[in-house]
Amino acid sequence: MSIRKAFRSKTEIVSLKTMSETLSFVRVQSDDLILTTKNIYDIFLQSSLKNNKILFREDYGTGQILDTTVDKIAKDAGASYKRVIGIGPGSVMELAKLLSLEKFSPFADIYHQRFALKKIRDLILIPSTPGTGTEVTPYCAVVMSSLGVQTVLNDDCLYADYALLCPELLEDLPFKAMASSSFDSFVHAFESYLSPLATPFSKTMSLKAMEIIIKAWSSIACNGAGALNDNIALLQQAGTMAGIGYANAGCAAIHATAYPLAVRLSLSHGESNYITFFEIVKIYKEKKAIGSLDDIECMACEILDCKKDESFAYLERLCNNILSRKKLSALGMKENQILEFTDMVMTRQHMLIANGYVQLSPGEIADVYKNLF
């Protein structure tokens, strides 16, 4: 199928206030399979769920999803369940997507395209962070541990039937996790807005998401971390809006250059994007200042009360007040990895580079890592 500009949203999105209200909406059945975290279960689910099969994300490791993780969870889940309910952060929801399929193990067979994906179960996703947007995307990222590479599945059968937004789930989110996660959603919105595949409909979602996030960050910077709970529902909504933009128009160079940082340095997805973001923006401004980037600067300067050409400088200072950044050398990167990371981007993330606002050369990508080192 050829790639074309179009707007789609296959998931029904429902905003709720509490987990009690959310569980009433879901009407959990005895033959539902629930994937969640132990903390969420202890706080919100233990008293309500008595006879369900429940899998805990922590029992299968932490961090990125590995192919070995997928195979183990497939074995433990079995096949005797009719719906899948994923309640938790991005990795929980992406694993829940796989659990809704007829067959997803051994994952190596999916990687080598030995069978087609087929969804046979209803899928309900309830995010516990405000950033990934995966509750409304057709994507699932898995690392092939034997190869040291990440593959991203992109198939319509990975869309959830329902995405339920419950801000109560986010109320105890650690501040750093919130900051990192919200920056992840900001980058989804930013890159999808600039994408050559963006439509007026996806751009509306993406621009509104960025506006909400910048206003929330400004509130937190002015009033302290205590202002987080006042903004958490809006940040969650912005993450889903950004996810819709991302699902329709994709991401680009920021995600591509962040990829080696997540895979080789074990940084979170949001933090990896944050580290490379402003370096990529500098290249964009140098090569194509007038265009969709101009729209974002106009929106940001109104919120940040600055001149348009100062928007990203003001935004960078705001972000540094929310989440500090370290040099890559302080995060474990070696100088000889500059070329390795550049090669990883050009050979494994070339489709994201091709989807960029402007095209980046290998030399420009290498310079990103040199400047951040």
TrEMBL record:
Single GO molecular function: alcohol dehydrogenase (NAD+) activity
Record has Oxidoreductase as a keyword: yes
Record flagged with keyword Oxidoreductase: yes
Any Pfam family: ADH_Fe_C
Keywords noted in UniProt: Oxidoreductase
Domain Fe-containing alcohol dehydrogenase-like C-terminal: 179-372
Source taxon at top rank: Bacteria
Residue ranges annotated for the Alcohol dehydrogenase iron-type/glycerol dehydrogenase GldA domain, each copy included: 31-165
Protein name per UniProt: Aldehyde-alcohol dehydrogenase
Species of the source: Anaerobiospirillum thomasii
Classification lineage: Bacteria, Pseudomonadati, Pseudomonadota, Gammaproteobacteria, Aeromonadales
